[in-house]
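PROTEIN DATA CARD
Card holder: Protein-export protein SecB
Chain length: 163
Origin: Phenylobacterium zucineum
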Amino acid sequence: MSETDAGAPGAPEAAEGQAPGIRILAQFIRDLSFENPRAPDALRAAQTQPQIDLGVEMNARGREDGLFEVDLKLSARATRDDGALFVVELLYGGVFQIAGVPAEDLEPVLLIECPRYLFPFARRIIADVTAEGGFPPFMLDPIDFAGVYAARKAQEQEQVGHA
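Structure generated from the sequence above:
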């Protein structure tokens, strides 16, 4: 689910000759959840690899001060035939200052480039939390945020076409 509010007061206007720029002013954990429902039994070595289901969501919104908040939500659920091993959900946020980006390009910058900056930090948090839960660190593979964005835009267009 993606949401942008490019019309926020103080939203950047593309200035003549101004080079586009992104500054990360803050990064933070907005919400973190780790469930280990079958500990300690689930920590024993097993013959089969767990099934991993991943989820990725990006949201962005303009603030009254002209900055933008971007949230990256990552979730992972590991299961085996006998049930869930762990569930981790992280909502990781950042405050960004965007300069020199035309209004029509702002949404892709907020939902592709900004999450790309946040991802390595969120990935590390998930790896650390799963390791502290007694499992090997769960290292998320890199995410193609441009592909996720394109798929969401295509889905939105399809929904508009059916309306």
